[in-house]
Amino acid sequence: MNDTARVDVSLTVGEVSETVNVTEAPPAINTSSAEIGRTIQATEITNLPLVERNVYALLDLTPGVQSNNNGIASSSTGTSSLVLGFPEQRTLINGGTDSGTGSVNYYLDGGSNMTNLHNTGNILPNPDAIQEFRVQTNSYNAEYRNQFGGTLGSPMRRDKTFFFFSYSDMRQTTSTFLNNAIVPTDLERLGNFSASATKPTDLANNATFTCNGVSGVICANRLDPIAVKILNNYIPLANLAGSKWQGNGPSPFDTNEYLAKFDHQLNEAHRLSANYFTTAGANTVKAGIGNLPWASQKFNWRQHNLNLSDVWIMSPSKINQAWLTYTRNFGGRLNLPATSLADLGSAFTIQGTPSLPQITVSGFFTLPNAIIGGPTAGTNF
Length: 381
Fold this sequence. Notes:
Elements (H helix, E strand, L loop, with lengths): L35 E5 L1 H6 L17 E5 L20 E4 L13 E2 L2 E2 L1 E2 L4 E2 L11 E6 L8 E11 L3 E22 L3 H4 L11 E2 L4 E2 L1 E2 L2 E2 L9 H10 L9 E22 L4 E17 L9 E20 L2 E19 L22 E3 L3 E3 L9 E4 L1
């Protein structure tokens, strides 16, 4: 009893019967394109916990995503997710900002999945219906830039004549965010300010407007028909609480270009070349400074370049080059719409190209004016 027994056991090393070889791994650097991002795989969508089964929550797995919120991003904490009556996805990436409108594009099966009013993301299907999705945080692939074109080149006559053709096109639309406008209520549009904090003053007697004994109401026969037309046709209804309006003004930018080049070896001493290049574009931008859509400016331009040349090898030590060049570049500015107050019924007489003036209601809204439309300008050289 109370003795310690010791038994030594010898073990022999067995043979290795199984080997695991790792032959592939995800590439650390994407060498096929310049874009930066990652793909959220089906296993992550299926296995990771999702609050309210919202797949947007997985955006946080991507480096560079600094704020991911279904309605309230870190730099817009005063923005309600249901301010428009439906949820909005707001994501901030790599220092992006959110001043009431988003700066990230959202797609569903290749199609846009965004609300154009705030430029934010719409609702996604449930995680059981989503296989994977990709988050691109920088250097986006060309497929998202609305640019397309092509080139074609070939000999027309062996060792003698050659041609080359190029075409390129771009269709791009950005937007200008408009906010902080306070627009008239339905009653105010009818001249009824009885429920409004600010009552209009009748300049005829310097007292508050009164109609049929009701204070703060402008009788229908005292309403200016031009002002009524502007209210009905140009001043949008409120889409936010407090009779406020905000939205986006589109700014399309379209260009296209063509180039054709011909080379002909006339003989051993002369090589003739001809090329023609033309490009045209248009860009529409918001005019002036204001917070409601009212006037815009459209810029149009077209350029032509024609070059003819002859390279003459005069001797082994002398080469002569002769060039004939023609360049034409013209552009202009057009105010949109081509409308003035006279077109709305005013007795105001305009000079020059019709355009809308700036109208400001202090403390409420400003309709921006377009500067005078310029004539077509350019050069022939």
